């Protein structure tokens, strides 16, 4: 091929890449919008929703060009996280109360107690996690606590906290199968709380001294990076 032919080919290659990235950007924008719709339908405060919306563009661009997670994970692009203090505020909404009880089958007081006891978080603004892995693939499913911790440290990913799992469950309620257990790994040194899907709703439980191997095929959700976009 001539020099001119090579230049033309390179030009059209760049055009194809540019158009492909635009298509991916559109897909991520739609994903972002679906996340917002889930939070709105669930009944989170409107002023919180608006704060998250403000960073749509920055979140999408960051996900496109700055997120490179471990290739062994079957990760989703990103997910907005609602800090624990906002959950307490959200219970002032009748819509939120109805949806919460329908989905999680737990009293408000018990939920907030677990939230307060198990979450050491001073965050006051929503943030995003990137490369969210639900923990249902063959790499991270059915492991014991020690093996899971060692694997996550090796590939440089972080187990989801209680507030992170609760946010992702609202956005992806169909992610886990009936009876599947979702392990909150950082809490194993406390009460070993876990969440599981049963008869169409998520419920909360405690491991206490129960060994993880007694509940086979438990999922360990993880993420690669978290980042704040919304102003405090």
What would your notes on this structure say?
The protein is of the alpha+beta class. The protein has one domain. 47% of the residues lie in helices and 15% in strands. It is built from eight helices and eight strands. It has a three-stranded antiparallel β-sheet with strand order 1-2-8, with helices on both faces. A hairpin with a 2-residue loop joins strand 5 and strand 6. Helix 1 packs antiparallel against helix 2 (46-53).
Question: Features of this protein?
Answer:
47% helix; 8 helices; 232 residues; 3-stranded antiparallel beta sheet
Topology (SSEs and partners):
Elements: H1 3-42, H2 46-53, H3 56-65, E1 76-81, H4 84-90, H5 94-104, H6 108-118, E2 127-132, H7 145-155, E3 158-159, H8 162-171, E4 181-183, E5 193-198, E6 201-206, E7 222-223, E8 225-227
Antiparallel strand pairs: 1-2, 2-8, 3-7, 4-5, 5-6
Could you give the order of the helices and strands? Answer: HHHEHHHEHEHEEEEE
Provide the residue-averaged pLDDT: 75
Measured by DSSP, the beta-strand proportion falls in 5-15%
Question: Numbering strands along the chain, what is their spatial order in the largest sheet?
Answer: 1-2-8
How big is the Rg? Answer: 20 Å
Identify the overall geometry.
Answer: globular
Q: How many domain units?
A: 1
Question: What oligomeric assembly is this protein in?
Answer: single chain
Low-confidence stretches: 187-191
DSSP helix count?
Answer: 8
Query: How far from one another are the termini?
Result: 56 Å
Q: Main β-sheet, in a few words?
A: 3 strands, antiparallel
Share of helical residues? 40-55%
* Structural classification: alpha+beta
Give the tally of β-strands.
8
């Amino acid at each position: 091929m001539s020099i001119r032919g090579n230049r033309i080919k390179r030009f059209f290659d760049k055009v194809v890449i540019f158009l492909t990235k635009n298509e991916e950007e559109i897909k991520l924008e739609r994903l972002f919008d679906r996340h917002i719709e889930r939070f709105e339908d669930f009944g989170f405060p409107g002023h919180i929703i608006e704060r998250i919306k403000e960073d749509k563009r920055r979140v999408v661009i960051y996900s496109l060009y700055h997120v490179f997670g471990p290739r062994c994970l079957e990760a989703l692009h990103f997910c907005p996280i609602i800090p624990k203090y906002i959950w307490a505020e959200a219970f002032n909404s009748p819509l939120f109360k109805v949806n919460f009880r329908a989905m999680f089958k737990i009293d408000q007081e018990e939920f907030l107690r677990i939230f307060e006891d198990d979450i050491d978080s001073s965050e006051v603004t929503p943030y995003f996690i990137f490369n969210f892995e639900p923990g249902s693939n063959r790499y991270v499913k059915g492991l014991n606590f020690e093996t899971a911790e060692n694997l996550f440290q090796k590939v440089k990913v972080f187990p989801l906290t209680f507030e992170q799992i609760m946010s992702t469950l609202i956005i992806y309620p169909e992610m886990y199968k009936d009876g599947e257990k979702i392990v909150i790994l950082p809490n194993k040194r406390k009460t070993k709380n876990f969440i599981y899907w049963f008869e169409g709703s998520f419920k909360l439980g405690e491991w206490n001294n129960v060994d993880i191997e007694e509940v086979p095929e438990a999922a360990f959700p993880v993420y690669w990076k978290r980042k704040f976009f919304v102003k405090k």
